[in-house]
Description:
This protein has 140 residues and is mostly helical.
Amino acid sequence: MPVRLSTTVSKISSLPNSTNASLLTEFYQYMKNNGSSESHMNNSLKTNMAFATFIGLDTTFYDIQRKEQIVDFLDTKIKSIEEDPDRKSITTWNDYLNDIKYFFRWLYNKKIKQKNENNESPSDWETPTFVLIKKKKLRE
């Protein structure tokens, strides 16, 4: 049974790092105010909450500066060919990458660079170099 958005949002405060919990709450408000679908918000929040748990108590999202920090988390989603002959875990890896990339683009442009112009759309945002990670291909 899928987890409802309200359930996901209620679990943000239980993250091990209060800074990350606060940032995800702000990110949720941003997505909500900009008309994101409940499904998109739920998936983005669940992915980034899992990443926050992965990086632990002593690391904030502001501390993430290297691709490897993200890839290490994404690689935990890859299953062996025996467990996943259809390679659906590659799709999961790519979906998680998209969610994390969107969050870090928001964080970089709205919080770090303080670009709060109302008319600026995500398509105008800069992407931090450490999230310029290529998607995995299904057939390599």
